[in-house]
Amino acid sequence: MDQRPSGFLDQAPERPRRWKSFRRELTDEQRRDILGQLYAEGDDRLPFLRRFAILLSLSVLIAVFGLASDSGPVVIGAMLVSPLTTPLLGLSGALVMGWPRRALESLAILVAGTLWAFVLAYVTLTFIPEPAAITLQSEELLARTQPRMLDMAVAVVAGAAGAYVLVRREAVGALPGVAIAVALVPPLSTVGMLVELGKPDLADDALLLYVTNLAGIVFAGALVLLAAGMRPETHDGRLPRRAKAGIALAAVLVALIAYPLWDVTRHSLAHALDHDEAAAIATEWADDAGLRVQDVEVALHSARIEVVGPDPPPPAQGLADRLAVAFEQEIDLQLDWIPERRTTATGRAP
Fold it and tell me: How far apart are CA 74 and CA 53, in angstroms?
């Protein structure tokens, strides 16, 4: 068992005024209550693990059904049932308190839960009698394959909210909202589903979103628990070296995850800007020809533009040249024309 720093449940020593204004002291009972929620010891461990496994399994099943059927409310239900927040905040608390054993236990529960959720999502999808092409049209599923830097911000705020509700029981009414914000099971289930569907590249993006949420929640949870008074008590009021190392480790983890996340965000932003510029050029060209742009697709050195109109479009070379000048590179253009035919008639009553 971890050796708690001396005075953990004793009255905290006098601290500088600015620290007192930042937080209020936790009582001994509040600290014991927090520990009881985050860590299962002795005879409580097996029932805790059983509840965790059951709730996680139910959450994954709900998520798979919701993602496959493209149902947002069902996916939200999976978030509400998910128990993954407990080991995450347990890891945050262990890092702050400098408890390596409890940190490893929380991490082990999290890793085991992650692997089980992946396998369960993979297997469950094999029993859903629906073509892969239809499942891959699910907007709820594809939404988990587009991680951005904004998702890291959401994870940090959600982790802070979860830790705050943990230490301030009077805010328990916000718990459902926190569960929805801490979106862990849907992206994790998406990973298993996409692997089963033979889309490993998309699965990697969903995995990045899941890991982003993990890192952001652990880091923010550690900071909030520290600020709320969940910290080792020392005679001089300073944070022990182990606690500082734990918080630094969480910060490094966030930085490591943020790098590939920023790379994905940068490419997505560049693609969106290229699409908008190509659409503007195509619209101007089509207006001059009496046509209407219906669809625009842009790739690295190519573009596909679909226009609709009653008359055939002018030669595509002019549009291709405009795009090449705008993007300062050679562009292979595919121009699709959909003829628009209209008939009119006047009906007369007998």
Answer: 20
